[in-house]
Predict the structure of Dihydroorotase.
Amino acid sequence: MSKILIRGAKVLGGEAQDVLVDGETIAEVGTGLSAEGATVIEAAGQILLPGLVDLHTHLREPGREDSETVLTGTRAAASGGYTAVFAMANTHPVADTAGVVEQVYRLGKEAGYCDVQPIGAVTVGLEGRKLAELGAMHDSAAGVTVFSDDGKCVDDAVIMRRALEYVKAFGGVVAQHAQEPRLTEGAQMNEGIVSAELGLGGWPAVAEESIIARDVLLAEHVGSRVHICHLSTAGSVEIVRWAKSRGIDVTAEVTPHHLLLTDELVRTYNPVYKVNPPLRTEKDVLALREALADGTIDIVATDHAPHPHEDKDCEWAAAAMGMVGLETALSVVQQTMVETGHLDWAGVADRMSFAPARIGRATGHGRPVSAGEPANLVLVDPAYRGTVDPADFASRSRNTPYEGRELPGRVTHTFLRGRATVMDGKLA
């Protein structure tokens, strides 16, 4: 197995150190380490982080390979510094059986760019009427630990309670897409001043907040874990903060786009800004940043949602919801959280690696950068500034809201168990 010496990187943004990788493992961390027999990467001024973990990725395969495949999606993940992603269940067929989750798991192994952990559906066909084969998916080769009907809310309280009870038996977690369906019928964007002026159907904050309030109470009653997907409003922050103060086992995620973009962008009628949940107000954005900083929101998750060109290059009402995000997530977090003083790089490592790996039970990921640990690592050049060009993406889809926008930071190297998946900013 080859040796790699990463020389002079700031580990988690701290002091410059050398990191020696031998095979799949970090062999030594220190200063002045010997480079004998090793490939040397000069990393002065760069930040070395544990490989990023995304708890919320849509890889679309099987069934929507025109949008993304496991191969192209994991190439995008590696380009963004990720060494593990959790693949959502809204595929075709739905990942609601052991057979489908094992297929996704196998495709991830074959692709080899990052570890793929399938997320199992909570209900059969994402229809919200009958629990899927939760135990069988957990006991399968894929070892599913996270279950979600993302894209659809588990709005039936009895079904949600039963799911929480079921996964408690093996330490799993239900990741809820918090959207009360009756309150969002015909909704096109955030309900507020902008929606009123544009005449577009409004998506009220309470549609999200009411489901979160119900589910944290259910989790408390059952004594189980619940995770809130793509939390987007200031009111949702307060509910989660209250639940944590009571000792309820709830975790929550925020997307990069909800940390940066607001509903004012919908005035362009550009469908690239159409997303679920919708872009909210500046007040919400600031509340989300504060909550991520103080730990009320546990993690950043991309909700990487690729779509083919025709599903976005159309009128607003007909456009699909969603944005790609794996390749820009770290840059957006650097801009919104690091450069604003909300988080240091150690905080970024926690929110984008340690915590998501812990929530999803991703073995070997989210580990310290120290001797004896798996060499899942990412090197970031924080001084880089560049304009986003979707033509450069590894993803099959191009529906990014950041096209033409300057963002900071660039992933220069990604290592999956000591093997380079990205070298000098290019896929290996």
